[in-house]
Amino acid sequence: MVIDDDFYMSLAIQEAWNYQLLTYPNPAVGSVVVDNGQILSIQAHKEANTPHAEVLALKEAYLKKNPKSKLAQITDSFEIHKFLKENHNGYFSNCDIYVTLEPCNHIGRTPACSDLLVAIKPKRVIISVVDPNINASGGIKKLQDNSIQVDIGVCKSKGEDLLYPFFKYLEGKFIFFKLATRANGSIDGGYITSKESLEYVHKIRTKIDLLAIGGNTVRCDRPTLDCRFVDKSKSPNIMIYSRNNNFDKNIPLFNVKNRKVYISNKFDFNENFIMVEGGYNLLNLLYDKIDMLLLFISPNMKSLNNDEIRDMKYEILHSQRVGSDQLIFLQKKL
Amino acid sequence: MVIDDDFYMSLAIQEAWNYQLLTYPNPAVGSVVVDNGQILSIQAHKEANTPHAEVLALKEAYLKKNPKSKLAQITDSFEIHKFLKENHNGYFSNCDIYVTLEPCNHIGRTPACSDLLVAIKPKRVIISVVDPNINASGGIKKLQDNSIQVDIGVCKSKGEDLLYPFFKYLEGKFIFFKLATRANGSIDGGYITSKESLEYVHKIRTKIDLLAIGGNTVRCDRPTLDCRFVDKSKSPNIMIYSRNNNFDKNIPLFNVKNRKVYISNKFDFNENFIMVEGGYNLLNLLYDKIDMLLLFISPNMKSLNNDEIRDMKYEILHSQRVGSDQLIFLQKKL
């Protein structure tokens, strides 16, 4: 394997995917700081209103050689910027800073990353994708105007894949579908996926503008659709997609605090960031209207309808891409 | 993310998985060379009778700062060892060498890696799993006897997962099952996976001792089961698992050169490294006898039996582990 810009950028992209959808309305962004070939830090933006990826990466990189610095206790974006601007002392002068998206150039809920980069004067800034957001862009120009070498377009295609949800909600609307299946594709018969997957879905529910769900699921599963695994105080608003208005109001989802529920036979929204949860029937119906499918695959197999498949339990040893497919190595669970 | 021994060892493990099953009868092994924090190389053993992972990693690391060295042209294991022993000139004295398996200590088809490591005197050797193979082990002791610091057990669990096939065939027998499905679990209706997946399966077919297949598949699919996508001259021997001896001998698999075909109603083998190819019926029947499942998942959906699923085409944006599940982010194919 070649250890080059693509390699370091891939690490940044991979780290950012761990927080995909959780950074809304911000993009998922990753950053890596490399000092003369040594990786000092790999970080990602985790949530709106918290420090950007490159700020976390610079902080971690600084602490790598100054572990007792009071910077370790600082979490506020403005304070981290201030500390690094005042105390960098040439620390980053040999560093390459990899960022999956052009550093922001405006002061909003966090200060402009381009200003921080200009202040600490790294050797080079490497960027995967240029920011299409007119409000935040201009970062590259500012860096170049301040004589910092900027290389653009590294791992561009993978960088754009990472930003796909962001691009869509920037355009006005992003609709994604969550489907949980077993390794044989079966979806019936109780909880399918692991606790960690449920928690991730509940985290996403705290971020979305709306949760859409089919009327049949509501009638059959009688769900709650809250975020209890991560935050009991938050619950997404619900749109029940159904021709029939008639629902038993004792179904738990109707009785969650601080939530609006509406019923509609039109799959049409004013909201911008919408998760749909459902099975094959609903996915099939909505295929054309869905931007992204979030497919959770449990390593087990089970079938309620088809006698050819008994309960089979596996553990994932490893998974990797092969061409356009995903290959999963499974070990029988003992 | 913390940049520590676990991080570097994970890179070695991940690289090795790319050659899983292809290194038989050798184990899949990866190696990373880090010079004072700078990653110089990431390599894996690719195939029996070719250089071991650490040898490839040391070669690539050396070439990183000596790109015009004649070492670039040397591919034979003995010759690489010889060159590095004579020319290292202290090059590796600040290096940490990560290896997923204890370096071998015997001279066989390739020279002993432990001797090479002693000769080039790295700062430290970090090992995930101790070699259980009595013929190859002793590497750690030799390194320690020569005052090289050795750290053992880094990412041990992931290192053992990587070695699972090796452990099994070292014990005498490893049987794995190849299943190709679409994202909805469907397996009927022609080719399912990509060209790259087919090529990988054909590569594996050049390595196995035996390919087992169900009688029904032979009768219905009339397969060839050769390795034509990668090497037309090689073809695995075949065991047809069937109660009925009666097959049309015009089925292509019977007419491939240099191959033995036998039919048996017992799933019982003298061979050591066996791939089974089939669908859910056969997997269900053999679940208890299969050590590992190789599951290729195409990103598309399709159902022949079930009207609720139409043809849906997706591309994988990214995939990652979440708890015990695999999460795949899919974008609708335009």
Structural overview:
Two copies of one chain form a homodimer. Chain A has about 325 residues and is an alpha/beta fold. Helices cover about 30% and strands about 25% of the residues of chain A. In chain A, strands 9-8-7-10-6-11 form a six-stranded parallel β-sheet, sandwiched between helices. The longest helix of chain A is centred in the middle third of the chain and has 16 residues, at about 155-170. Chains A and B meet through helix 1, strand 2, helix 6, helix 7 and helix 9 of A and helix 1, strand 2, helix 6, helix 7 and helix 9 of B. Strand 13 (about 325-330) of chain A pairs antiparallel with strand 11 (about 290-300) of chain B, so a sheet runs across the interface.
The computed structural class of chain A is alpha/beta
Strand content of chain A: 15-25%
Chain oligomer state: homodimer
Q: Specify Rg of chain A, calculated over alpha carbons.
A: 23 Å
Largest interface: A-B, 72 and 72 residues
Overall 3D geometry of chain A? globular
How many β strands of chain A by DSSP? 13
**How confident is the prediction overall: mean pLDDT of chain A?**
95
Helix amount of chain A: 25-40%
Order of strands across the main sheet of chain A:
9-8-7-10-6-11
How far the N terminus sits from the C terminus of chain A, by CA atoms, comes to 35 Å
**What does the largest sheet of chain A look like?**
6 strands, parallel
Number of helices of chain A: 9
Low-confidence stretches of chain A: none
The ordered string of helix (H) and strand (E) elements of chain A is HEEHHEHEHEHEHEHEEEHEEE
